[in-house]
Design goal:
alpha/beta, single chain, binds uridine-diphosphate-N-acetylglucosamine, 14 helices, UDP-n-acetylglucosamine1-carboxyvinyl-transferase, Chain, 2 domains
């Protein structure tokens, strides 16, 4: 296993470019199952999750090649519409093949994501939505088995906003017979990137008032060429890094329109951010003000930036309350931040963060993807050396994170444990 060794205190300066968005490329890769024609995807980040999705697609019979950041991919035929446990357990987003497979083949078997059961932590809303389109779904030996003769349009209101749930049901609806109305759909920019791709493929999707999509099913879809949108979560992470440990850092590729909640929150904390050509410039902030924050579905503050924001609040001036509304138990980074001297208490979905003067370097362990980046951010400003273990989580979703930070001046290196 690999770890990162970070010497705290180095100032960040210069430019960093954000990669293509993980949460956009994963559904787009799944969408290639909807056509037998070649698809070309540009700006593909080299991430472990992307490699997992490609392995899964390969398992289904898809052929692909990857050069620089361009993936050429073709699902001429689906040899085996089964997403096995071994792959799905490493990445929940594997479930994104369910909708496209059942739309293309009328049959799919997808392993339930590890530890989940229908009704609990959950893909229950994906399944309910597919059922509304006429799909018969049952759970057999830990697999979701879905089959349908002919998908037909239907009306479905998501009980709760779900990003991959919206994407899954949408990818089935585009090939259904007749019209589908989906209400309370996720509004995340990554969903819109997928919609842009589906439209290029010939899908008929229209946004009605509110969070409603109208889909008019078509008989077949064609190949496409698409450049993946920049990763707004990675961009936010670098902005926070710049505010905490930087002098002046330009984050190229950051799309301010996708980051309104994060930018306004950072500004309330006293962080200065300017628009520059092709991105955003952040200035290091000597005194970061403590400001409460709650996560919400887009356009609210993203849960995927909660941990990084908490790292920043842990050295802020004053006390803040961070409320996590999307995922239960998404506070696993708290115990590790405390090991570095942060003063944080958790009560249910709220964390009270009392800013401390300084953090102290320590050995810490990454528990999930965004928790890992928050620990690196904390380590950048901590006094002394930190070791962040289990960074395979980080490599799932950040392309060359340590290398990009090193280019900005961070003292960070990767070691084998
Ligand atoms: C996606 C993102 C992830 C992000 C999350 C929330 C991808 C690949 N991943 O995950 O990075 O943190 O959105 O912005 O895009 N839920 C149900 N039933 C369901 C589905 C979800 O109850 O069938 C609940 C979840 O437990 C959670 C909430 O809905 O409480 C939102 O989850 P969801 O938007 O589905 O997250 P993902 O799509 O898995």
């Amino acid at each position: 296993m690999e770890a990162l060794i970070v010497e705290g205190g180095a100032r960040l300066n210069g430019e960093v470019t954000v990669s293509g968005a993980k949460n956009a490329v994963l559904p787009i890769l799944a969408a290639t199952l909807l056509t037998d024609e070649e698809c070309v995807i540009e700006n593909v980040p080299d991430l472990r999750d992307v490699r997992t999705m490609l392995s899964l697609l390969e398992e289904l019979g898809v052929e692909w090649s990857w050069q620089k950041n361009v993936v050429r991919i073709r699902a001429s035929e689906i040899k085996n519409p089964v997403a096995p446990y071994d792959l799905v357990k490493t990445m929940r987003a594997s479930v994104l093949v369910l909708g496209p497979l059942v739309a293309r083949e009328g049959y799919a078997e997808v392993s339930m994501p590890g530890g989940c059961a229908i009704g609990e932590r959950p893909i229950d809303l994906h399944i309910k939505g597919l059922r509304k389109l006429g799909v018969e779904v049952e759970l057999r030996h830990g697999y979701v088995v879905a089959k349908v003769d002919r998908l037909r349009g239907g009306m479905y209101v998501f009980d709760k906003v779900t990003v991959t749930g919206t994407e899954n049901v949408l990818m089935a609806a585009v090939l259904a017979e007749g019209e589908t109305i989906l209400e309370n759909v996720a509004q995340e920019p990554e969903v819109w990137d997928l919609i842009a791709v589906l439209k290029k493929m010939g899908a008929k999707i229209e946004k009605l008032d509110g969070n409603i999509l109208r889909v008019s099913g078509v008989d077949r879809l064609r190949g496409f060429k698409h450049k993946v949108m920049p990763d707004r979560i990675e961009a936010a992470t670098f902005l926070i890094a710049g505010a905490m440990a930087g002098d002046e850092v330009v984050v190229r590729g950051a799309e301010p329109e996708h980051m309104v909640a994060v930018l306004s929150k950072l500004e309330s904390c006293g962080v200065r951010i300017e628009r520059v050509e092709g991105g955003l410039k952040v200035f290091g902030c000597d005194v970061i003000k403590a400001v409460d924050m709650e996560t919400f579905p887009y356009p609210g503050f993203p849960t995927d930036v909660q941990a990084q924001y908490m790292a920043m609040m842990s050295i802020a001036d004053g006390t803040s309350v961070i409320t996590e509304n999307i995922f239960e138990r998404r506070f696993m980074h708290v115990a590790e931040l405390r090991r570095m001297g942060a003063d944080i208490t958790v009560d249910g979905k709220r964390a009270v963060v009392r800013g401390v003067e300084k953090l102290i370097g320590a050995p810490v362990m990454a528990s999930d993807l965004r928790a890992s980046s928050s620990l690196v951010l904390a380590a950048l400003v901590a006094e002394g050396t930190s070791k962040v273990s289990r960074i395979y989580h980080l490599d799932r979703g950040y392309e060359r994170f340590d290398e990009k930070l090193r280019m900005l001046g961070a003292k960070i290196r990767r070691v084998r444990e």
